[in-house]
Design brief:
36% helix, 188 residues, alpha+beta, two-stranded parallel sheet, Nucleotidyltransferase, domain 5, 6 helices
Length: 188
């Protein structure tokens, strides 16, 4: 699971339409209409993903998204392993601030959270999916959160129907070499 901001912008000047042999041309100036947040959860080996667009990236938004993962993606799973980064909103307190205590505990107990190391969020495969989403779907001017939601929903349906999987090739041996500086060494 990961999240990413999306700037809502529109062109300040009309674009030059496409002509034979020439792409549409966009002016570099734009008008900013605020921000949106995109939550992404994916199951890399099955090719499933869940994407949600929110106005903010608060503890409560995160808690509601994680609840959706539990209740919609894996309603029958007893335990869900979720790889996430060490962002300050990713804490048990988020559930207790959002839901009644019994519901907060129910959700928290269903998960095993695996936190990526600091500066190691690239180990989270949801970040790879977010890059694919941004490149394939969101790499142009979108001025409203509704338009972002519409585009993301279409992309999610297409990717899930296609069964797009991540071919993760980062091995334990490679991780010991690449991540060596993150672990303490014993001298003597």
């Amino acid at each position: 699971m990961d999240e990413s901001p999306k700037q809502l912008i529109s062109s300040a000047q009309p674009s030059t339409p496409m002509k034979p042999g020439m792409d549409t041309r966009e002016d570099y100036e734009y008008v900013r209409h605020g921000m949106a947040n995109i939550f992404m959860a994916n199951e890399p080996l099955a090719g499933n993903r869940m994407v949600e667009v929110t106005s903010f990236k608060t503890k409560k938004d995160w808690a509601r998204f994680v609840k959706r993962i539990a209740d919609e993606m894996y309603p029958r799973a007893k335990r869900i392993t979720l790889v996430i980064d060490n962002f300050k909103t990713h804490a048990a307190s988020a559930f207790y601030e959002t839901f009644e205590p019994t519901e907060a505990k129910r959700i928290w107990d269903r998960f095993e959270f695996i936190f990526t190391p600091k500066h190691g969020s690239w180990l989270n495969m949801a970040e790879i999916e977010l890059h694919v989403l941004n490149k394939q779907c969101l790499s142009r001017h979108l001025s409203t959160i509704e338009k972002v939601e519409e585009e993301v929903s279409a992309w999610q349906s297409h990717r899930n129907n296609k069964g797009g999987k991540i071919n993760w090739q980062f091995t334990t041996k490679e991780s010991r070499i690449k991540l060596r500086r993150l672990y303490p060494s014993i001298n003597g």
